[in-house]
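Q: Sequence in, structure out?
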Amino acid sequence: MQLRHLEVFHAVMLTGTITAAAKLLNISQPAATRLLLRAEDQLGYKLFDRVKGRLIPTREGQVLHAESERIVSGLENLRKLSRNLGAATSGHLRIAAAPALCIDLVPLAISRFRQKHADVSFEVKPGSIPISSALCSITRWISESASTCSRIPGWNCSWSPAPNSTAFFRSPWRIESPPV
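A: Exactly. Output:
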């Protein structure tokens, strides 16, 4: 079964008629009929019984429909992704936050973000980490950032541990927060 056959089959399952399926797919009714007949010929069995001008799915058609749902959904996701790649409008963000922030602040921020970026998915993990671990991660990130940007011509960045375990990072540009 070819992909186009699958699309026609799925559209007929959704709409109940070849005419409506053809409209949904922006093809002519005779083209949709030919594609469906070719699919049945290739498979060697009927996907629909023709009863009084209506198409009734056979047992095989019903079984095939469950899998076609998954494939057509994946295909639509692939189409959406390919459209959005050039525009950089889709993606997946992982957010780790304190449980208290996950009740009000994080959902509000996600809601506002989605108004402009509807195709971005989110994964929120409430939790906490020991302060010492967080400080080590931040210190390591600052150290790596200073090391990287000090090699860029025109950047005047430095990093130095100070007394009392405080770290200072000096740069003429705004540096983003460390990744969590």
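The two ends are 45 Å apart (CA to CA).
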